[in-house]
Design a protein that fits this description.
By secondary structure, this protein is of the alpha/beta class. The chain is about 35% helix and about 20% strand. The structure holds 6-chloroguanine.
Length: about 230
């Protein structure tokens, strides 16, 4: 999978891809992530990419020209499956969307800034708009990193234990069960006996029940979707 991220702040974005699982995915050649500086496509000597909005009002708007030039340049070299715009008024990201997008070959992610982007970009270039939650961030970069992380870890071979993404919270609309490691007792606080029993069937049952119980308490919305469908 190849992800090309268009941003005015490439430096802000780089670090999440230089460590741990995402770094390994890139080093192994399972993923390619490129950072494209939108200012390189500016029309003027000041490298500006934003302007005052028509109709007045506070806040700058990202101009269509640099974005169009940039996206067209990328498209002239690569076929893209999706051109995604990160925006708080987009579709809320969930595991289902991540699973779906992780099967794509090439995607562009455009990071918004300021008051937003000229609506004509959204109408004519963007194929999908994604938000990572109902709160406002200063720009799309951190959201783009969240999206990219959620996609890259699903690529086969990226996680060392191939099956482990299948057991992530949300993969089946259930939260993950509680986990423990050594010591088996600390301060008198004990690890549930069953996990030390060696009985894998019983352990699997305990984990499933623990998942369901946690989901019921912490995320009744998910629980009801699973167990009390309308
Ligand atoms: Cl994608 N962008 C911004 N600026 N804020 C957000 C967001 C995206 N998702 C949630 N809040």
């Amino acid at each position: 999978m190849r992800i090309d991220i268009i941003t005015v702040l490439p430096e802000l974005l780089k670090s999440p891809f230089e460590h741990s699982i995402l770094k390994r995915a890139i080093d192994k050649g399972l993923a390619e992530v490129n950072f494209i500086n939108l200012r390189d496509y500016s029309n003027d000597n000041y490298k500006s990419v934003d302007d005052y909005q028509f109709g007045g009002g506070a806040g700058m708007v990202m101009m269509i020209e640099p974005i169009a030039k940039c996206i067209n340049d990328l498209k002239s070299k690569t076929n893209y499956d999706e051109v995604i715009y990160m925006t708080p008024d987009g579709e809320l990201l969930d595991q289902k969307t991540s699973n779906h997008l992780s099967t794509k070959k090439n995607i562009i992610i455009l990071c918004g800034h300021y008051k937003g982007i000229d609506e004509r970009v959204r109408e004519h270039f963007i194929t999908k708009e994604i938000s990572i939650g109902d709160y406002v961030l200063s720009g799309g970069e951190l959201a783009a990193a969240v999206l990219a992380d959620s996609l890259l870890r699903l690529i086969p071979g990226v996680l060392s234990d191939e099956t482990s993404a299948l057991f992530d919270s949300f993969q089946d609309d259930l939260l993950s069960p509680a986990v423990y490691t050594r010591p088996a007792e600390f301060n008198g606080w004990k690890v549930p006996e069953i996990l030390l029993s060696g009985n894998q069937k019983k352990i699997d049952e305990w984990r499933y029940e623990n998942s369901v119980e946690r989901t019921k308490i912490r995320r009744p919305d998910l629980y009801n979707k699973n167990f009390n469908p309308k």
